[in-house]
Amino acid sequence: MTMTTTTTGMSEQGSVLPRPRLRRVTDYIEAHMDDDLTLARLSAVVCMSPYHFARLVKRSTGLSPHRFVVRARIRHASALLAAADLSIRRISQVVGFRTVSHFTTVFRRVTGTTPHAYRTLNRPAREGGCDAVP
After folding, report:
1. How far apart are CA 104 and CA 134, in angstroms?
2. Strand, coil or helix: what is 8?
3. Is the dihedral of CA 78, 17, 65, 11 positive or negative?
4. Is 0.85 topped by the overall pTM?
5. How do the residues of the chain divide into helix, strand and coil, expressed in percent and rounded to 5?
């Protein structure tokens, strides 16, 4: 395999997305979770071509940009399921899924459990509710 060298002298083989740019993309994803986060849109956030951006994200995170976005959405959904009183349908919309069934499928694939089961296991018991012992 031949290794090419960029104008800065750094080999492309070892180049990664610099932390400040990765942070900028991550912040953008979190702020626009319910938007259609395309490769073109994400690469524009850091002023890079989509192809180059995709390669550097993969090298930096071990995930393709699509999987990186999906994982961010599932992390956010997990936090909402554990803490918020939003319905699962509303959470799926907030994190950018078009249908609850797709959200449930992806959530199960990533976490190994359904959103409902995750919520049940990770929500603190409510005081004064049916579970409270007098």
Report:
1. 37
2. coil
3. negative
4. no
5. 60, 0, 40
The structure tokens listed for 96 are: 């950018």
pLDDT tens, N- to C-terminus, the chain (134 residues): 444 444 444 444 458 999 999 999 999 999 999 999 999 999 999 999 999 999 999 999 999 999 999 999 999 999 999 998 899 999 999 999 999 999 999 999 999 999 999 999 988 765 555 554 44
- Strand spans (E) along 47-97: none
What residue type is assigned to position 8 of the chain?
A: T
pLDDT computed for residue 17 by the predictor: 92
Q: Which residue do the tokens 């012992």 mark?
A: 133
78: left (phi over 0), alpha (psi -120 to 50) or beta: alpha
**Beta-bridge partners for 11:** 5
Which structural domains are found in the chain, ordered by start? 17-122 (1.10.10.60)
